[in-house]
Amino acid sequence: MNPSLVSIIIPCYNEETTIGLLLEAILQQTYPRSAIEVIIADGFSADHTRARVTDFHNQHHDLDLRIVDNPKRIIPAALNVALNTARGEIIIRLDAHSMPEKSYISRCVEALEQARGDNVGGVWEIRPGGKGWQARAIAAAAAHPLGVGDALYRFTRSAGEVDTVPFGAFRKTLIQAVGLFDETLLTNEDYEFNVRVRQQGGKVWLDPLIRSVYFARPDLASLARQYWRYGYWKSRMLRRYPKTLRWRQALPPLFIASLLGLALLCPWFHPAVWLLAGEIALYALILWGASVPVAYSKQDFSYMIGVPLAMATMHFAWGSGFLWSLLK
Hints:
It is built from twelve helices and nine strands. By secondary structure, the chain is an alpha/beta fold. It folds into two domains: 6-218, Alpha-Beta Complex (Spore Coat Polysaccharide Biosynthesis Protein SpsA, Chain A); 237-327, no CATH class. Strands 1, 2, 3, 4, 5, 6, 7, 8 and 9 form a nine-stranded mixed β-sheet that branches. Strand 2 (36-42), helix 2 (49-59) and strand 3 (64-69) form a beta-alpha-beta unit.
């Protein structure tokens, strides 16, 4: 019996530093190479991304690899452009700053063939996206429950049904049932897609044996921009699907709102000064306490500074972006 043709779709823009790592990881997959096609939807990268892809293809002609243009330069449009040209029965979405383990495709296909879920995915091993203490701390914070709440794909060891998965794998026929990715959302497009899957009675399945490496942001400034976008567009998505709100998504904007509210009360209500100071002190103590085991396990005490800073950046950027979207 011939293996199912798998189309790997990859949204991409200015990923010259990691695109080669991803393509090399695809080349090393245990799934038959003859049953894989790779479609990179590129938003006209301004760096050497396309040259890297072309050079790789010239060296590995046995891998079906092609680039399609994504003139809108947004992720959901890139996914839709790639989907419209995909020939595979099974679709696997990957990011250009990721590296799937060797059994990734095989395990995704197996999970779909065994009907464990309509959209299946696995867990991330988060690695630094650059050099230095900031990059190391961000990777640690992005894998910590205090940083990301109950986003199980970042740390769980148990398989089961979930709200969403990163880098989902699904049969192309699922698109006929739920539609393409929503191009009005610049981020959260995968979560919104999975909402529609679940609304149609489908199942989203997380298997920790399906593993990939994800490269986190390299510095606090880029992390702040990333989480601002996440918060901003999550708020937009929740207007359509308010029942999908989870506690981990509500806490950052509520925390930011409480700080702002107390700060505004301070000139007229003196106890607000102490409440504000106490809330900030408690928050800082909790973040610092979370960093101690990380620093000890890695024998690098720069994490005791970097991890609290990274977590605070994630919380404040996400919460502020969420609140700003509500105000707009």
